[in-house]
From TrEMBL:
Belongs to the outer membrane factor (OMF) (TC 1.B.17) family. It is found in: Cell outer membrane. InterPro entries: OMP_efflux, T1SS_OMP_TolC, TolC-like. The keyword Transport applies. One of its GO terms (molecular function) is efflux transmembrane transporter activity. This is Transporter. It comes from Rhodoferax sediminis. SUPFAM superfamilies: Outer membrane efflux proteins (OEP) (SSF56954).
Length: 449
C-alpha cells in the first residue's frame, strides 16, 4: 500500500481511509507519546519482579585516622607467663591510615510493604498498556474525523461554488429580461444580493477547507492528498445492530478508560495497605563479610589493628515510632482511595451515557438517511420544476434561488448524516474497546461501495 509522505509525489489513485490511518499511525506525535509510555510501563513490570530478588552491596572506605585505646585492670594469662591481674594495655596511632570494605547480600523474605509496592508496579504497567489502547482508539477516531472534515468541507465548497455559478447565471438572465421588460427590477436585486452572499460563503468555505486539510496534513504528513470521496449510494451499519444491553455490558467490561480508572483505584488501595501498621514490619535474610584495617605510629611506636567479620542470619525490622509521618501518609492514602473509587463511578456513568448516545445515533441513523434521501429527491424535483416554471414565467427568480439553495442544503445534509452514521459506529466500537484496524477497513470498504 502506497502512502504519500511529506515531500513525496502524490499517488496516482485517491488516498483512502486506511492510507490516511497508516500515515497517522507513524507520523502523529501522540503515537510516539503513547508508545513511550507503554514501554515505560513494561519497565515497571521488570521493577516489580526485581523487588523480590537479592541485592548485593559492596562498600569501601579509606581515611586518615587517629586512635587511642587504654585498658586498665585487665586479667592476663598465657602459657609460660602465668596469670596476672590488674594488667594495663595501651595503644596509640596518630594520623594513621585506615581502610576497609564490606560485602552484604540481602534477600527479602517477608514484607507486606514490598508486596504492595510490587503490585502497584504491575498495576502501573497494566495501566500504561490500557492508556496505549485508549490513545490508539482516540487516534483512530480523530483520524477518521479529520478525514471526513476534509471531505465535508470539500463537498460544501463544491456545492456553494456550483450554487454561486447558478445564481450568477440567474442574475445575468434577470438583467437581460429586465432590459427587455420581461421581468421586474426586483429579480435583478434579489439575484445580485444572493450572488454576493454566496460569494462570501464560498470564501468562508474555502478557508474551512484549508484548515481541515492543514489539520489532516499535520497529523499524517500527507501533502494535499486527493481523498477517496463518499460514494453516491448510501450504506448503513453492516449487519444487524445488537441490542443496547449488549453494548453496555461490553463497555462496562472492556472500555479502556474505565479499566484504567479501576487500575488506578487498585493502585490507591495498595498504597493504603503499604502504609498500614501491619505492613511496616519486614524480615530479610542477610549475609555480610567485611574487614577494617588501621596502621600507623603512635606514642608507643608502630601499631596496627585488623578486624574481620562474617555473618549470615535473618534481620527483623519493625518501625516503632515515626513522629506521626506514617499515620499521616496513610490518612492521605485513604482519602485518595476514596477519590479513586468516586472517579471510577463517574467514569462508569460517562461511558454508559456515551454508549447509549452512540447506540441511539445508530438506531436513528438509517431512518435519518432514508428521510434525507427522499428530501434530496424532492428538492431536486422541485428545482427542476422551478427552473421550468421560471422559463415560462410561472416562478420568480427568488423561487429559483430558494430551490437551488434547498437542493444544495439537502445534498450536504445527506452527506453529513452518512458521515455521522459511520462515526457513531466507530465511537460505539471504541466505547466497547473493540475499535481496531479491522474495523477501519470495514468502514473503508463501505466508502468504496
Amino acid at each position: 500500500m502506497t502512502i504519500v509522505m511529506a515531500g513525496a509525489p502524490l499517488a496516482a489513485r485517491a488516498t483512502d481511509l486506511l492510507d490516511v490511518w497508516h500515515a497517522a499511525s507513524v507520523h502523529d506525535p501522540d503515537v510516539a507519546i503513547a508508545q513511550s509510555a507503554r514501554e515505560a510501563g513494561e519497565a515497571r513490570r521488570a521493577q516489580a519482579s526485581a523487588l523480590w530478588r537479592p541485592t548485593v552491596t559492596l562498600s569501601g572506605n579509606v581515611a586518615r585516622t587517629s586512635a587511642n585505646t587504654s585498658t586498665a585492670g585487665a586479667n592476663f594469662s598465657a602459657p609460660a607467663f602465668g596469670q596476672s591481674n590488674g594488667v594495663a594495655f595501651n595503644t596509640s596511632i596518630n594520623d594513621g591510615n585506615a581502610s576497609g570494605w564490606t560485602l552484604e547480600a540481602r534477600q527479602p523474605l517477608i514484607s507486606r510493604e514490598r508486596q504492595a509496592q510490587s503490585q502497584q508496579l504491575d498495576i502501573s504497567a497494566d495501566a500504561a498498556d490500557l492508556e496505549w489502547q485508549s490513545s490508539r482508539q482516540d487516534l483512530m477516531l480523530h483520524t477518521v474525523q479529520r478525514y471526513f472534515d476534509v471531505i465535508l468541507a470539500q463537498r460544501k465548497l463544491d456545492l456553494l461554488t456550483r450554487q454561486h455559478s447558478a445564481v450568477e447565471r440567474a442574475w445575468a438572465q434577470a438583467k437581460d429580461r429586465f432590459a427587455i421588460g420581461d421581468a421586474p427590477v426586483t429579480d435583478t436585486y434579489e439575484a445580485s444580493a444572493r450572488a454576493e452572499s454566496l460569494r462570501a460563503q464560498v470564501l468562508a468555505a474555502d478557508n474551512e477547507l484549508q484548515l481541515a486539510r492543514t489539520a489532516l496534513s499535520d497529523a499524517t504528513g500527507l501533502v494535499s492528498p486527493s481523498l477517496q470521496m463518499l460514494s453516491p449510494g448510501g450504506s448503513a451499519v453492516p449487519g444487524a445492530l445488537p441490542p443496547l444491553a449488549h453494548w453496555l455490558a461490553l463497555a462496562a467490561d472492556s472500555n479502556p478508560q474505565l479499566r484504567l480508572q479501576l487500575a488506578k483505584a487498585q493502585a490507591a488501595r495498595e498504597e493504603t495497605v503499604k502504609l498500614s501498621a501491619a505492613a511496616s514490619a519486614k524480615l530479610d535474610l542477610v549475609a555480610q563479610a567485611g574487614e577494617q584495617r588501621l596502621r600507623g605510629s603512635g606514642d608507643f611506636g608502630p601499631a596496627s589493628n585488623t578486624t574481620r567479620q562474617a555473618m549470615i542470619g535473618v534481620q527483623l525490622t519493625v518501625p516503632l515510632y515515626t513522629g506521626g509521618y506514617r499515620s499521616a501518609r496513610q490518612a492521605e492514602a485513604l482519602h485518595l482511595e476514596d477519590k479513586a473509587l468516586a472517579e471510577v463511578d463517574r467514569t462508569r456513568q460517562q461511558i454508559s451515557q456515551q454508549t447509549r448516545a452512540a447506540w441511539l445515533g445508530l438506531q436513528a441513523g438509517s431512518a435519518r438517511i432514508s428521510a434525507l434521501t427522499e428530501s434530496l429527491k424532492a428538492s431536486q424535483s422541485r428545482l427542476d420544476a422551478t427552473q421550468l416554471g421560471r422559463q415560462v414565467g410561472d416562478r420568480t427568480t427568488l423561487d429559483l434561488l430558494n430551490a437551488e439553495s434547498d437542493a444544495s442544503n439537502a445534498e450536504l445534509a445527506l452527506l453529513q448524516a452518512r458521515v455521522d452514521l459511520l462515526l457513531n459506529q466507530l465511537r460505539l466500537q471504541a466505547l466497547a474497546g473493540q475499535l481496531d484496524e479491522a474495523r477501519l477497513e470495514a468502514v473503508n470498504t463501505l466508502l468504496q461501495r
